[in-house]
Design goal:
Structural class: alpha+beta
Radius of gyration: 28 Å
Oligomer: single chain
CATH architecture of the largest domain: 2-Layer Sandwich
Distance between the termini: 76 Å
Strand order of the largest sheet: 3-4-5-2-1-8-9
Length: 422
């Protein structure tokens, strides 16, 4: 018996199909009509079918057909045939590209990611049989107004389950990325991974290890960006051992703290930084995680600076202390750190994000470049060499304490006093 779950609201098939047809972009509709006229039995598959049943916004419009790729290519004036070997023809329309893929079966997965060969088929149900999860193995024939669901995907949508098509060990053994996709779908849809599917995750680590880091990062990023409950998927990610193929440094995070990550805004790298805080990672360890996941240089820098700003938050956070904090670490890292602090240390950082926003809107002087005087003014008054830099830093300290002193007249009056202390 699987876990009892509240039923997910799923649109009746006739309403879902009517919605899908009504919202279908004109270029997709034209491609469907052309394929139908050529007896290509076109169907909509994948995300658009799943999402319309769940009443979610529609984005991806993938078409499948019984026609061979070469035949599809002859039907349209402009196509891209780069994916023809695997059955996909990109039809170029005035409103953008439309992917059309021939029904297919797949050979052995030798690299743990993609099939070594494909076989073109004429049966849509055989095509659906190769797909990863039942909720993604539903098709709609928009011409006949028919929903095709040979593997119980609609029932799994109603149950709120992510379940593989067929044997989960076989599905994960073919493509290691499917393990993270299971976690991701559970996270973004607010579902649970079905028991047998969840049980197969741990043994699939060896296949996941073959997957490129960039692809692993994308799945983690989408999971961490979820607006749905995140505790269950994160617990499963750790309990299954899959976390060791993403960031083993995070494996020891106490599961009870995942509720704190869920309480953060759904920004993936903010949540990753928060996860690092909860796991008590050093800056070196967090950098290792970020670089392994192939984050961009800017994202790595923001991640590490946010962690440093979090650790350096002043114990007495009055306005002057916040100005010094912002001046040291920068506005964006401090905003990110404030979000972490408001969740992880609410008593210490009560209403901190709001306070910080108001402070920044007042446009305080936070850097030497914003001072009302320059290095030339200090030189003109007799300072030289290192005294100039030291003097500017001293003046900034004065202004951070009292912003009203950032006028040219007041700062010039302070310069003679600086020359005796530098």
């Amino acid at each position: 018996m699987g876990p009892k779950r509240r039923q997910t609201r799923v649109l009746p098939a006739d309403i879902a199909i009517a919605t899908l047809v009504r919202q279908m972009p004109a270029p997709v509709r034209e491609v469907v009509q052309c394929l139908h006229a050529a007896e290509g039995a076109p169907v909509l598959v994948g995300g658009c079918v799943r999402d319309v049943l769940l009443g979610r916004p529609l984005a991806d419009w993938d078409l499948a057909t019984c026609l061979l790729p070469a035949a599809v290519a002859t039907l349209f004036p402009k196509v891209v045939r780069a994916g023809e070997k695997h059955g996909t023809i990109m039809v170029l329309t005035q409103a953008g590209p439309v992917e059309v893929t021939t029904f297919r079966g797949e050979g052995a997965y030798l690299d743990g990611r993609r099939p070594d060969s494909v076989t073109f088929l004429t049966d849509v149900e055989a095509d659906l049989a190769r797909r990863d999860f039942t909720i993604n193995a539903i098709a709609v024939d928009p011409v006949a107004g028919r929903l095709i669901d040979p593997f119980g995907g609609v029932g799994d949508l109603q149950r709120g389950w992510v379940r593989t098509v067929g044997d989960p060990a076989a599905r994960f053994g073919e493509d290691g990325l499917r393990t993270l996709r299971a976690i991701r779908f559970a996270a973004v849809l607010g579902f649970k991974v079905a028991p047998a599917t969840a049980a197969a995750l741990a043994k699939a680590r060896v296949t996941l290890a073959k997957v490129a880091w960039e692809r692993r990062r994308v799945e983690l990023e989408k999971s961490l960006a979820s607006r749905c409950p995140l505790v269950g998927p994160l617990k499963l990610l750790v309990a299954s051992g899959l976390i060791a193929e993403l960031a083993p440094e995070l494996a020891g995070t106490p599961p009870r703290t995942f509720a704190l990550l869920e309480a953060l805004p759904p920004a993936p790298w903010l949540r990753l930084c928060g996860w690092g805080v909860l796991a008590k990672l050093s800056a070196t360890a967090l950098r290792t995680v970020a670089l392994r996941l192939k984050l961009s240089r800017l994202d790595v820098e923001l991640l590490l600076t946010t962690q440093a700003a979090y650790a350096a938050f002043p114990a007495r956070a009055n306005a002057a202390a916040l100005r010094h904090w912002l001046s040291t670490w920068g506005i964006e890292p401090c905003h990110q750190a404030a979000l972490l602090l408001s969740v992880f240390a609410p008593k210490q950082a009560h209403a901190l994000p709001t306070r910080l926003t108001r402070l920044v809107r007042s446009r305080p002087c936070l850097s030497i470049a914003q001072l009302a005087v320059t290095g030339d003014d200090l030189v003109a008054m007799g300072l030289s060499g290192r005294q100039v830099g030291g003097g500017l830093r001293a003046l900034l300290h004065v202004v951070l304490e009292r912003p009203s002193r950032n006028t040219r007249a007041q700062l010039l009056r302070l310069i003679p006093n600086l020359s005796t202390t530098l």
